[in-house]
Design goal:
The structure is a single chain. The protein starts with 19 loop residues before the first helix and ends with a strand. The protein has helices at residues 20-26, 73-83, 97-104, 143-150; strands at residues 31-32, 46-47, 63-65, 86-91, 109-113, 136-141, 156-160. β3 (63-65), α2 and β4 (86-91) form a beta-alpha-beta unit. Strands 3-4-6-5-7 form a five-stranded mixed beta sheet. It has a two-stranded parallel ribbon with strand order 1-2. The longest helix has 11 residues, at 73-83. With 162 residues, it is α/β, with parallel strands linked by helices. 36% of the residues are buried. 21% of the residues lie in helices and 18% in strands. It contains four helices and seven strands, in the order αβββαβαββαβ. It has a single domain (20-160), classed as Rossmann fold (3-Layer(aba) Sandwich), CATH 3.40.50.
């Protein structure tokens, strides 16, 4: 899978974008370390693409992280945990080892989004009304991000973990 991608067996592409209303509710962000090279909207002031290999470049400021979904999600979350300042969007796979290690045991807060998010195609169009292949959760690292997440008005269930 490509950087910033989300996989669905029913789709032709695995590059999916965060709905812009999520970014608007949570931003502004300083860095998005895994974004598409050609994008219809910005998610942060600075973007790293697959060519930049954002996992290995230095991170700075407040991070927006919508990582590649799948087995590599954990390495991206680990880097965000170590950075300590940002918000991530992943599938809510609450029973996994990754979730326990990098969310339950490391995050400040979580917001389980009500319903399924509709991720956008790389050209900015919304492909389906039924939403993504699983439930999504926003994860805040750092007290300021926890406050922003709590006050975001994104429909869902907010839980403090600290």
């Amino acid at each position: 899978m490509g950087i910033g991608s989300h996989h669905s067996p029913k789709m032709i592409t695995d590059e999916w974008l965060t709905p812009p209303e999520i970014i608007e509710a949570l931003g502004p962000f300083d860095l998005d370390p895994c974004f598409l090279e050609n994008r219809p909207w910005d998610t942060a002031k600075t973007h790293y693409t697959i060519k930049d290999n954002g996992l290995w470049k230095p991170w700075f400021g407040r991070i927006w992280l919508n990582p590649p979904y799948g087995k590599d999600t954990a390495v991206w979350l680990e880097k965000l945990v170590n950075h300590g300042n940002g918000i991530a969007l992943i599938f809510a796979r609450t029973e996994t080892k990754m979730f326990f290690k990098y969310v339950w045991d490391a995050a400040d807060t979580v917001l389980f989004i009500r319903g399924r998010l509709g991720f956008y195609r790389s050209d900015g169009t919304l492909p389906m009304k039924s939403g993504s292949g699983g439930p999504s959760v926003l994860i805040a690292y750092g007290s300021e991000n926890a406050k922003i997440l709590e006050n975001s008005n994104i429909d869902g269930k907010f839980i403090s973990l600290k």
